[in-house]
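One thing: can you check what follows?
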Amino acid sequence: MNNNELYTPNNWWKRNWKWLIPIIVIILIIPILLFSSGFGGHMSDFARLYSDKDLYQKAIEKAQSNQKVIELLGPLEPIDKLAILEGEVQYTNDNKSVDLSIRVSGSKRKASIDIAADKINGIWNYRKINIRIKKPVEDKQVIEVINQLE
């Protein structure tokens, strides 16, 4: 081998094309899959719920006024952002109706709150507010705070 020969490395593209092409393809395919699966719509529902704090805060206030809820759960804590992400939410009727289920915590135990509401003249009117206790199994029950469903 002659030490006087110059080593010229391949350019960046020739060295890296094997991993760059698949990454570009994945980056282009992921948004298409998300929006075609409807997951993008679910994310916009969660974002809408984050911005509409009155919807779930007033439902918590109504649940707090139920003696059985206070007896079994204790005073309810404000709903945190993680509880919203763990829950389920679906807006319909041009975002004027909503069905959601999110985790709530009281001083004694945790449960879920199910809310069905319609927005009329900018105000949420609740058709249903239920508190579902799942654990412990012997205390499993549903407390109807409001039930105006047909």
